[in-house]
Amino acid sequence: MDDLEEHLGLHKHLVDDDGDSSDNSSTLRGKKLRLPLVQPMFVETKKETGFTQSCRMCLEQIREAMLHHRWQEAAEYMACYPQILEDKACYTTKQYKELIWRASTEILHHHPKSTIEDYNIIYERLKHSGFKLYLKVSLEHSFHLMLQGKFEDAKQHLAAAESWRYGKESSAQIQRTKLIQAYRSLLDFIIWSEKKVVLSNNNTVDALSENQSMHNYFRQASVNLKGILSNPGVWDPFILSYVEMLEFYEDYEEALKVLNDYAFDNSFPPNPNAHVYLYKYLQRHGAPQKKLIHVLKNLQLLVPSHELMLEYTSLLLQSEKQKNTQKALGIVLEMLDFACWRNNLDRRLGEHHQ
Amino acid sequence: MDYHFPLQLFPSFYNCGPPDSVLKNGTGSWGSYDGVLPQTGSGSLSSWAFTSRHQVRGETWCHTEPVLVPFLFPKNAFHRHFTPPDPLDCIEHMQNFFMDHCQDAFGCMSDILGENFNFRSRGTEKHRHVSVWRVKRFLKLLNYKICFRTHKSSAMSSYCRMLSNVVPDIPPPLLGSLLYEELAEQRDHMLFCEGDTGGALAFVPFAERGKNVHQRGCLLYPGGQGLDRLKFRKVDLQHCNGSVSCVDASNSSPVSFQLKAPIRQISCTSLFNDCCVAVRSDHFCGVWRFSETDEPRLLQVVNTNKPATCVSVSPHVLGEILVASESGAANLWTVGKGMQKVRMEDSNLYFNAKSSWRWCEFSAHPRVMLYADRTGVELTDIRVSLCSGHTLFRISNTSECRSGERLILSRYLGDVHPFHHLITTQYSAYIMDERFPCVPMLKYDHMMQSPPIFCHVIPGSATSASTSSTNKVLLGSHSSQEVTLLQYSGGKVGACSSRGPPQALLRPRESLKHLSVQIPHRRDAAANRLSAPVAGLTCIPKKAGSIPGRRECMCVLQLTEAGDIFYQVLEHNPTGLVTSGAPSADSKPRQAATELPGSTRLTAEPPADSQVVVSETSSDEDVIGLTQGVSARMVVAETPERDQRQPSRPSVSSSEESERFRDCRSGLQPRESQSDEDVNNEKVVDDEGAGSSRSLLQTSGKLSSSVSVKWKHWLQILVERNGKKKPRPRRLQHFQIFSKGLLRLPDSEARGAPEKEIMEKLREELKSCMSGRSLLVQRSVSLTAPDPVPLHQVSTSWTDTLSHRLTVAWQGEKAWQAWWEDQLGMNEKTKMAALRRKRRREKEAKRAAGHRLELSGSFTSASDQSELDIFSSSTGWTTASSQGLWSNTEDGEALSQSAEVLEHENQRAPTASTIQTDIPVPTPTAQSVQSNKNDQQSPSRLSTFSLTQTQTPDRTPARQRRSKRTVEDYLSTLTSTQDYPSQADSYFLENDSFTDTPPPPALLHSSQPLRVSMSRVAGPSSGLSQSLTSSQCSQGWRGPSQSSQPKKKSRMGF
User: What is d(CA B444, CA B430) in angstroms, rounded to the nearest whole number?
Assistant: First the structure.
């Protein structure tokens, strides 16, 4: 393992990244940075055999060719490189596998004759070549299928990956599993919304069973979507689809709760979209002006230049309080500090001083 | 609209905390999509689409030339080696220090001790003085490469022991540690120079006027030997030949300002055609103002106590500049009004990174600024307080940083998006949106080897609403000279996504291999110059414009620390086919397409280089090369020869005006292709053809002549400049040994008159032979016996089977085969018969003469003529000898080993003879051969085989029991493996011709060693004659072992 790391130039930088608070106060005068530089990918090791040497040189060529976008050349070299996996001397070949997977997929992206079968072969081979890569490759594979418009296949792959278990789960693995579930649910949602459209268009006899299967999709999706929304993160597409489904089944309480959590939970990143979604939701459901103003106030603190500030000012002006008018003026003037608003100054000012 | 925020962002986890030490394998984000986002469809499944965060394809940008092009002629620069010093060579550096700064190192003690030291030689020695002349002598010896064991000085070592602690002013251990520190710092500085962050090269575009063909602007760069002269040069980017864009300084000499220190960073913005330039050197910052019409003028200079690390000009208000220094303070400098401290940090922001480097930038809000150090970036409101801010970016798990990752550079991307910032680390480039701090909008692994400290951003033009072009980020590194092009899009309505993998651009140090071959010392000088670290990076973008057929292109400029500026032109290839290996039917070049004025024309050429990408599918006709376009504007083509002769480069010492290339104007245009490619020239492809994209790839192997001319001049001038000032390198002197009298002929005096006579005679004979064009044969040449050469001990001293076999194998296949037969007992019967006969004869002989028994067995048998007859009848040897011709015997089995030895003894002869006939050198070899033949029946010769015969039975018995059948099989396989084609035949053929020569009077014993030596000589000399085959040569070499063998035996026999 050590040898492998050395070979790949993956020296751990055991620098005090987490920041010793005791050390933090010390002044830095005269101290120069000793920047951990990027270790080259290909380091000659002491115990290098001729085989590993030729593999290293091959990798170097692949890298050069790929960085210069000479894909054909890279493909030719890449055809030879997987023999590194046959090296019995190194016990773990995870790095090599990942490298082969990444490089060969990238080459396939740019190869003029690459087919979906080629992709499938690469993904499947490397997915099953080691347990450490399985989830990552599965996810990427389904992304590929989604981008190709093959939602059914993608869903199948995601479902397979979802049920996959191996050994003790690391935190990264748990997160990846959750992502897989969420993406699967997103696909469920897409099928659900398709069925919704079909259902609304024709009121045939099958309505009941259709409705039933649609509800099944909803159930499948909602479990996972709700699950992932409890984790801090940016979940814009997931929350939108979840709220849409909840709205359809008229579970407004849950929808509002989810949106509120997404916007105001402190463990979440300060996502402007969270407030926007909440505002839009409230607006759709005719929430009182006060609530709307409250949401926009929070958004204003976060993004004073947001385009919803125009609505905020108009809401404030509608309230017809002296205090709010002043506030509205302040908001508009602050917006004008930003270059993007300054450009269409006259027009906007005219709009809001009607 | 600029104020839009993406409607949806790519999903990701938000992990706080320090970065995981994730092992990465240097593949970056190759091959991964890293999340997808649904584009909301309506209804059916097919209406849904996804976009990925890493999109597979970006725009295709191709080089127009395979090398960088120099922009300026090389100037004098400080000669530096750009390989960092190795701190582990401390001893050597200490030696350098002692030599260079001896006054500092030994000053005091040498003053005190000096008068008591006597450096003169022994004669003037005083008793009070310490005499160190021996030391001096030893030190003189140190100039040479000597062995310190043989040349050791006891005086030196005793003085060393006594004085080494006293003499140096600084104790060596202390000096060593100081030196080590210094070297380590120098090394770090060379590997990563944080002072140069930002780069000292800038381009200020002037406002475009309508359908302006040229991109005009002003290039700001440091000149002068120490990069301490700020220059403003107006430049144009032109399509000068239809295909090749080139930078051309238009009309005037540059305005320049001499500064006190090297320029580290140039930052500039232009508002309403007015440009404000801030220049940072180590302790000074200056502001200039200029416009297209106004000359640049200096507004104000400020001095900083601590080295300044950053200067940044406000894009909002002209005359506002942020200055950060190593003290940790960031100041807002309003030109003409003074400085205002806006932020002060003693320590690093998020953790102790042990760095005093600070950086600041403006942001979307004119009163909010970015304050950055190695650990992260904070947004600070200038209006509020000194020490507050909120995090925009930090090295943490949120951005999936790796441990050890540090912020290198931050740049406000106001031109691209008013809220976006670019942040680079050693590993990645992040696009941050200040409206959504902490979470990067995009993470792009740039895959550079050394950290990117320069960057230039080219906003994508949103010409057509559907497909706006990508934003281009150019990252440049310092020591490794890398330039990487990243592309991304989005950020307004759609989320940010990277487009395509990073693309590495050309580096100056890679240029030489594309140019014509240089003489080694020139090449080294040029390579050293070209490998100077980069000090700045900028780019001149050029829109496609309204002229059809003209592509969007960009010209990337790099400044090196040696003061050179190189540029490369990249052209956008709208077809986007990078590796179109398979040309489809419709992409075939169309014949004689309509010519558009000024359009880029591409003509087919045979592939310049076999390594190019599309080698697989393309035939020669599909490969399209690049020549210049409009034939109407064709300048008379200049031949390369004329280019060489032409002293078209301006004189080196001339004014500023002459330093730039005017090749474009002076008509040094790429020549039309040679006449033999005229057929291909007929094929004109228009720009939209897919073939053109491939042609652009093809050009990577081909260098246009105008560029190569530029390079030629550049290199010439570089060499001239180097030649003038270069100090003569100190050459290591060699230790001399006086060789007089070492090599001379032994006792040349003793050689008597008769020898001289012989020599004279020989010379005369040689002359006559030469005049008569005949060979000098050894007939009449008789030298005195040469000194005996020690014989090659071979066979008898090694008694084991293997050695014997090998010895025999040298004598040829026959002998070897015979040995095997003998060894395997295949000739048992014949031997038995022979032995029986022999015994019978012996008995008869006994009966005939009893007294002979007293002689030695070997001698008796050898002298027995009758026995020889028996043998010769079985081998056919006698018949051959009687005819005077050695023929090959058909019956291999019948050969006894002894006979074989004898035969090969004679076969060896032609070896020498052939050589001799080819090279007419007077040797006594032939003579010896003749004598050999004549004396073949002499007792000494015959004793040989009797001896060997007595040896053979010792080895055979063990194997004799083997079945004959298997043995024969075994032998056949053996013989088949050992292959000497027609070797034996050649012996005899040559022997044929040779036997005609009449036998001269012989001296057997003396001639044999000589022949040995001659054949040794003949081996290597075979190269002289063409006719000498390798087999002959090997025979010649085999000579010694063969000839020595019987000689040895004969000695034993007697």
Answer: 6
What string of DSSP letters covers B936-983?
A: GGSHHHHHHHHHHHHHHHHHSHHHHTS-HHHHHHHHHHHHHHS--TTH
Record the tokens describing residue B748, joined without a space: 């040349």
CA angle B545, B547, B551 (to 5 degrees): 60
Measure the CA–CA gap between B651 and B178, rounded to whole angstroms: 47
**Tokens matching residue A93:** 């070949």
Per-residue pLDDT tens over the stretch B296-320:
899 999 998 899 999 999 988 888 9
B-interface mutation test, from A20, A38, A180, most B Cβ less than 10 A away:
A38
Tokens 């004085």 belong to residue: B163
Give CA–CA dist B400/B994, Å, rounded: 89
| Model pLDDT for residues A28-78, shown as the tens digit of each residue | 333 445 666 666 666 667 777 788 888 888 888 998 999 999 998 999 999
- Count of C-beta atoms within a 10 Å radius of residue B891: 10
What is the ipTM metric for this complex? 0.88
What's the rounded Cα separation, in Å, for the pair B90 and B171?
A: 15
Query: Do residue A273 and residue B1 have CB atoms under 8 angstroms apart?
Result: no
CB atoms within 10 A of CB A112: 16
Q: In this structure, what token pair is assigned to residue B153?
A: 């000085």
Q: Do B669 and B246 meet the contact criterion of CB atoms below 8 Å apart?
A: no
Alpha carbon distance A238, B712 (integer Å): 61
Interface of A with B in 223-252 (CB under 8 A): 231-238, 240-241
Span A128-173, pLDDT tens digits: 877 778 888 899 999 999 988 888 889 988 998 888 877 777 778 8
- Please choose, from the candidates B992, B795, B1030, B973, the residue with its C-alpha nearest in 3D space to the C-alpha of residue B901: B795
Count how many residues are written for chain B: 1054
The torsion angles phi and psi of B647, rounded to 5 degrees, stand at -85, 60
Residues 6+ apart with CB under 8 A from B278: B266, B267, B268, B285, B286, B287, B311, B312, B313, B321
d(CA A175, CA B688): 47
8 A C-beta contact, residue B439 and residue B14: yes
Nearest to B355 among A31, A198, A303 (CB): A31
Spatial separation of the C-alpha atoms in residues B456 and B363, rounded to whole Å: 17
DSSP secondary structure code for residue B1019 in this structure? T
Looking from the CA of B320 toward its CB, the CA atoms found within 13 Å total 20
| A238 to chain B, closest Cα gap in Å | 8
Give the number of other Cβ atoms within 10 Å of residue A342's Cβ. 14
Given A102, A104, A237, which is nearest B37 (Cβ)?
Answer: A237
Task: Give me the phi and psi of B185, to 5 degrees please.
Answer: -70, -40
pTM of the model: 0.67
